[in-house]
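Exam revision sheet. Question 4 asks you to relate a sequence to its structure. Input first:
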Amino acid sequence: MTKRILIQLDSDLQPSSFDSVVAIDSGVDHLLRYGQVEVSGVVPLVHGAMFTRGGDDLRNTAVFVGGSNVGVAEKILAACRDAFFGPVRVSMMLDANGCNTTASAAVVAAGRHVAIRDAKAVVLGGTGPVGRRVSQLLAADGASVALASRSHERASQACHEIIEKSGQTSIQPVAVENHQALESILDNAAILIGCGAAGAELVDEETIQKMSHLKVAIDLNAVPPAGLGGIGVTDKAKPFGGGVAYGAIGVGGLKMKTHKAAVQSLFESNDRVLDAEEIYAIAKAIG
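Answer key, structure tokens:
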């Protein structure tokens, strides 16, 4: 039986041990790990994966693109796709810094408690890689999304790039210029997801408790202090205000299941490309 080989391309000095462990736990037979990968060096690595096997055996080789720099990872993924020749290709997955699996798990968790279509959703820290993907996935399921940042310029740029890439247009940029502006942004929101950088509280508990329409609040920051005040990192559907709350570890179980299932699905064919929406579909199937 042909062995399953996963080629891990990582832009960091050392390839992520987290991603490596998950790959092995997903049933990969051999894991080839490459660090400090640059876009200029992608082609020979991909050609090595493409030309060593043929026919049905091609589906037993796949590429995982990771690293802490999501922007670089996206360019590496594009370079991989450009290296293919017609049907001579291998399946690929992008989950740099856990961006796609984390965002997918968060939106699926939100959907357990509120119908996403037509709901107002606020994404704090929306200009980062996870925030952008959360916003994109919420919009794809019909939510009216407010992508929030301290800078209206950055929020507008993020919205423009999401709309250009995905075609989702129900995303609006908003700027958190002061507490009054924040309260206005949160008004009537049913979904609140915090995607900010570690070490910064985006909104305090008292303000969240005042949200009369809130059904679910999710904080994806695993490092104290909480990004959303009053939410513990291990909270999972814990009663909170008028709804429920999830912390980063609270959505972590679904994230891990999604990551493993996505890696396993790479070997079902030789032409899969798993990015945000494809990984979201896997998370929704898991539930």
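Marking note for examiners. The first helix runs from residue 17 to 25.
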